[in-house]
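W.,

You were right to be curious about this one. When I first looked at the sequence I had no strong expectations either way, so I just let the prediction run and decided to look at it fresh. Below is the sequence, 134 residues in total, followed by the output.
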Amino acid sequence: MSDAFPVTVFHNPACGTSRNVVAMVEAAGYQPEVVEYLQAGWTPDQLGALFAEAGITPREALREKEAVAAERGLLDPAASDAAILAAMVEHPVLVNRPLVRTPKGAAMCRPSEKVFDLLERTPDRFVKEDGEVV
């Protein structure tokens, strides 16, 4: 069933939102391809295509909390999308997560419930790690 509707989650297992998204996809009956991008890394073309598909810019996907974002001057409004994308390829932790791709499109799934827009079916009920019911 899941082969007919592939779900790819670009995942950071240290992130609660990302863990919730993987669990939501599984609760909906899918076997997602989970890409731990901190280990796998990114290519500029791959990341650029994913952002384009999701309709977001590198700046919108930038994880501003990471110290390297400030160190590289990426928080400066003058920092270009090209500079941000190059930094993300060099430092994958700069990409906010989780990003999800399905045949319905791609999205930054923050909040985690956004993943349901990308699926053909959803669980009747889901309880997040923090106890919130969705």
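Here's what jumped out at me. The beta strands are 8-11, 33-36, 99-102, 105-108. And, maybe more interesting for your project: Residues 29 and 39 are 26 Å apart (CA to CA).

Coffee later to discuss?

I.
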